[in-house]
Specification:
Number of strands: 3
Shape: globular
Order of helices and strands: EHHEEH
Number of helices: 3
Strand content: 5-15%
Strand order of the largest sheet: 1-3-2
Largest sheet: 3 strands, antiparallel
Radius of gyration: 17 Å
């Protein structure tokens, strides 16, 4: 008996995103991408988003023998917009 697995459906890039989109499927920015877009240093972006709710943190935050914690941040578009609105003057 052979098990047949169908491939995942392909979603066209031309489809518009809706506000009901899952956070897992929305655009995620790296620290360097957002730093270039906002014309800030990567360290500033990292400090702004490291403890922000909704940011994906990959890596070990509690290192015993190293001074630097090696983590990777992926910042969802909705979180970037929320922080931008919060930091903008009205």
């Amino acid at each position: 008996m052979r098990l047949r697995i169908s491939p995942a459906p392909v979603i066209p890039l031309s489809m518009e995103r809706t506000s009901e989109a899952s956070p897992a499927t929305e655009r995620h920015y790296s620290v360097s991408e957002l730093a270039a877009t906002w014309n800030l240093s990567p360290d500033t972006i990292r400090k702004l988003f490291e403890y922000e709710s909704g940011v994906v943190v990959i890596g070990d935050e509690t290192r015993k023998f190293s001074r630097r914690k090696y983590i990777t941040l992926r910042i969802p578009e909705s979180v970037a917009l929320r922080v931008h609105r919060r930091l903008s003057r009205v």
